[in-house]
Amino acid sequence: MEETVNDMNRELMLDANAVAGVFQEIFGVEMTAAPTECAHCGNEAEIGTLLAFTQGPGIVLRCSTCEQVMLRITQTPNAIYLDARGAVYLRLAR
Ligand SMILES: [Zn+2]
Description:
- The protein is mainly beta.
- It is 14% helix and 35% strand.
- A hairpin with a 4-residue loop joins strand 6 and strand 7.
- Bound molecules: zinc ion (ZN).
- The site of zinc ion has 8 residues, from loops.
C-alpha cells in the first residue's frame, strides 16, 4: 500500500477549498477553516488545507502531512455519504 501513496497523482489534486460548497451543503456552515485531526498521524489542520481529489465518483480528502485518506464524500441523487473514519474529529463552530 505504500506504493499507492507514493504514486498518488498530485496533478489530479485540488485545494480542499474547491469542495467548500459540498461541506456547506452537508453541515450548513462554512467548513474550510474548521479544524480536524488526522487519525493516522495526529496532524491537526484546517479542512481547507487537506489534499482534495475530486476526479473520482466522490471526493477524497487526504492528510497534507501523511497523505492518508481522512474524509470521503459520495453524492447520490437522494443522499450524501460522509466517511470520516480517517479523522479523529471535525470541529463545527456554533
Ligand atoms: Zn496524517
